[in-house]
Amino acid sequence: MPSRMRHEIGEQPEALRRTIGSLLPRIGELEKLAAGARQVLFVARGSSDNAAVYGRYLVESRTGRLASLAAPSVATTYRSRIDLDGVLAVAISQSGRTEEIVETMAWARDCGARTVAVTNGHGSPLAEAADVALLTEAGEELAVPATKTYTTQLAALAVLGAGLGADVDTADLARVPDEIERLIEATEAAEELPLIVAELARVQGVVVSARGLAFGTALELALKLKEACYLHAMGLSYADLLHGPIAVVDERTPAIVLGAAGSPVLAGTAALAARVTEAGARAYGIGGGPALAGSSSLALPGPALPEWTAPLGLIVPGQLVVERLARALGINPDVPRGLNKVTQTGV
Questions:
Q1: Which H or E run contains 236?
Q2: How many CB atoms lie within 10 A of CB 198?
Q3: Which CATH superfamily is domain 177-328 in?
Q4: What PANTHER family does UniProt report for this protein, alphabetically (predicted)?
């Protein structure tokens, strides 16, 4: 029987249609809130933190604003005061009930920031406390590994980028649900999918790498491999990987390399895959078109989307690999050991 995780992967196109349709009309509201903001501060943990990495790259590469990731302990444990005048604080939480994230957003507001919440938790403390709440329309997510709540967060952050003046065409965002629907079918029909799963089932560790707007996808896929398959998965920018950790990639530790077609970092991504295979290791490509596929041992298709929206699709083949790999390893991907849907990290 299909797992709940696989069922929710399949729900992503419709969840994205609802979310994008709901949030695109709010670009003007975001423009007004962000007027004069010189910096964006993202507040998140777990999968939401990986979504924030996408948000950071989108804001810095397309809006001309500085963006950074918050360290919540500065607010909740050190209780430091920072001048956040002119800062837009964006708190991301699937449930909207993670106390650390709610408290950190309140701290940011008290320090002078304007606040935005990105959450699937309608009526949650995070949504109620923010100046603007971007509510995703993923519906209830029952599997512990985030799938549709993660991609709808990316959609909300894409709308946020447009509201901050990103040089993008929002029509690209409207194409995402249909493209993900196609990508799910294409990935499951790919001969390479069972081969990649079979090979990964024989290893204990894997490196997942990308750069630029796709980097958050690499981090998210590594997290899913750890959560649902119990692999020692390391998510790294390929620039950082080449600075030393490349030594861990060998015949027992393959690499998964992700890229967006048309990205300025694609040539480097393909070169990394080639270096991995030349060293005698296996490289599995996701996306990147012929350039990455030609440098990889095996490759899965990516979305036919421009770089700024490609991360919404790039994670999907990875989700399908994780779900199949977990079941191949005899693991129930819906309820990984030691995890709950809402994680309270304390202060």
A1: strand 232-237
A2: 12
A3: Glucose-6-phosphate isomerase like protein; domain 1 (3.40.50.10490)
A4: AMINOTRANSFERASE-RELATED, GLUCOSAMINE--FRUCTOSE-6-PHOSPHATE AMINOTRANSFERASE, ISOMERIZING
Has 32 been annotated as catalytic? no
Q: Which CATH architecture has domain 4-173?
A: 3-Layer(aba) Sandwich (3.40)
Q: How far apart are the first and last CA of the chain?
A: 40
0.85 surpassed by pTM: yes
Q: Which of 148, 224, 226, 341 is catalytic?
A: 341
Structure tokens of 347? Answer: 């202060």
The residue type of 37 is A
Q: From 77, 150, 163, select the one nearest 116 (Cα to Cα).
A: 163
